[in-house]
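[worker-b] picked up task from shared queue
[worker-b] task type: protein-ligand structure
[worker-b] ligand name resolved to flavin-adenine dinucleotide; SMILES cross-checked against name lookup, match
[worker-b] sequence length check passed
[worker-b] input payload:
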Amino acid sequence: MATRRTIGVGWTVAFSCMMIGKMIAHAEAPTGPTTRCDVLLLGAGLANGLIALELRRRRPELSIVMLERRPGPDRLHTWCLFRSDVPAAAWSALEPLFEARWSGYEVAFPGHRRRLSTTYACLTGPALSGAVAAALGDGLIQPAEVLEADGTGARLADGRAFSAPLVIDGRGAEGGGALRFAWQKFAGLELRLDRPHGIELPVVMDAVVPQEDGYRFLYLLPLGPDRLLVEDTRYSDGPALDVAALEQEVVRYAGGRGLTVASVLRREAGVLPITLGGDFAAFQDGHPASLPAVGLRGGFFHPTTGYSLPRAVAVAGLIAATHPLESGVVAQRLRQQAAAAWRHDGFYRMLNRMLFRGAEPAARRRVLDRFYRLPQPLIERFYARRLTLWDKFRILTGKPPMPIFRAVGVLRDRPMPARTHA
Ligand SMILES: Cc1cc2nc3c(=O)[nH]c(=O)nc-3n(C[C@H](O)[C@H](O)[C@H](O)COP(=O)(O)OP(=O)(O)OC[C@H]3O[C@@H](n4cnc5c(N)ncnc54)[C@H](O)[C@@H]3O)c2cc1C
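[worker-b] inference finished, payload out:
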């Protein structure tokens, strides 16, 4: 039987590791020769991967070095997005990386199933890692644990040092103490089944399941005729995730659909931030002002899903178009972009507070059920962060998803005392 694994708050863990890393660097790291390049990318995750590809495409004259602590390709992630999330040119640039794409997707609630025709696609960690390795060649250095970095360079544990006019920090989540979050957390298995599953389209939410730990649904991605990624997902107040328990639920769910598992091909799990509020300026001040931060570290994620692929695409385009490519210039542009996005996203944070603070966990499914009865273009604009005033009105009107006196209480962004249960 699998041992119990629990995932905690990625943000807190990441921040602690960074501080410990800095202390070790000051105390122990030997000094060594310095490698110079035009662009130094810290971390080979989603955000920096897309930046590397975009810079190679649009600025091929640049020498790029990427430092990644992982010894091999990323096998953890499947990143998905809707066609409507990004402009046409960005979609075309991503297409070679897609492992699968579908002409629509489905959602299911008790008494309400719906098929939407928005194209959906996914790229996988190995595909992105492969493309980055091919684009950078010797410029991709791994495993390479960055211990210390600023806007002029970085140093590794083994003493190697790197310097560049532009350094970009894409090392994932970092201390988000200034922000308040709820969590979308999930654990999933990519299954090989003993026969074709017959599922044509992704099921982005199958909420016809017992509700636990907040809003619970299953997520299904048919990656091949007999390959299916199934994730048990919860929209919860807390970040703790019992991976083994959710994996068992996945197997149970598959059995309930009449599917027999031949083998488990891959596992993935995540705890993604759903932003409720906080002080974004303080969040930004927690990071060195002259070191450009991208991805989760820069605050570039969707406030309601925690997803970051569409915003990583936009940031890659922004950086490739910046002149001169210097840390100070890029850092300032990114900080301005992120701060503007934070102001723009206030409506989403209010919805999140309504979902997590205004609705009892058991009522959250009704909120999502109602949302998925809205017109498809509105749903597309919601995920693309392009809601119109009319869309916002549509989302808030109609049969209220919660008693109105509770809704009023969550309109303002302020810390809430811990909820007590009688
Ligand atoms: C399993 C999973 C599935 C997800 N699915 C989606 C999805 O479908 N769509 C979507 O938009 N979002 C999705 N997300 C959310 C989000 O897009 C991802 O978390 C995304 O990978 C974040 O991008 P990033 O570049 O900020 O960080 P990451 O992709 O996590 O990259 C950070 C990289 O930095 C490296 N690193 C960290 N510290 C150091 C160090 N000191 N030295 C060297 N290297 C270091 C890490 O090893 C890692 O490779 C998912 C998240 C998870 C966990």
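[worker-b] attaching auto-annotations
[worker-b] The pocket of flavin-adenine dinucleotide is lined by residues 43-48, 67-70, 76-81, 144-146, 170-172, 268, 270, 272, 295-297, 306-309 (CB under 6 Å).
[worker-b] releasing lock
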